[in-house]
Amino acid sequence: MFHTAYLKTPRAQALILLVPAFGAYTVFAIWPMIDVVILSFQRWNGLSADRLWVGLDNYRHIFTHDPVYWIAFNNTVIWTILSVIFPPFVGLLLALGLNEKLFARGTMRAIYYLPVIIAPIAVATMWRWMYDPFFGLFNQVMTSFGLQSWIQDWLGDRDVALYSMFVAFTWQNVGFSMVLFLAGLQNVDRSLVEAARIDGAGRWQVFRHVTLPALQVTVTIVIVLSTISSLKAFDIVYGMTGGGPAQSTQMLALWAFTQSMQIFDFGRGSAISVTLLLITLAVVVPYLRWSQKREEAAR
Amino acid sequence: MTALSASTVRDEEKVVRLRRDPLLIALWILLAAVALVWIAPFIFITFTALKTGSEIMTTNAFAPPSTVAVENFSGAWVKGNFSTTFFNSVIITVIKVPLGLMISAMAAYALARIKLRWNKLLLVFVLFGAMIPFQVMLAPLFTLVNSLGLIDTYIGIILPYLAFGVPYQVFILHGFFNAIPKELSEAALIDGASHLTTFRRIFLPISLPVLAALLILDFVATWNEFAMALVLLQDKHMWTLPLGLMSFQGQFSNNYGQLNAAIVMTVIPAVIVYLIFQRYFVSGLTSGAIKG
Question: I need a surface site. Which of A51, A57, A198, A266 has the fewest CB within 10 A?
Answer without folding.
Answer: A198
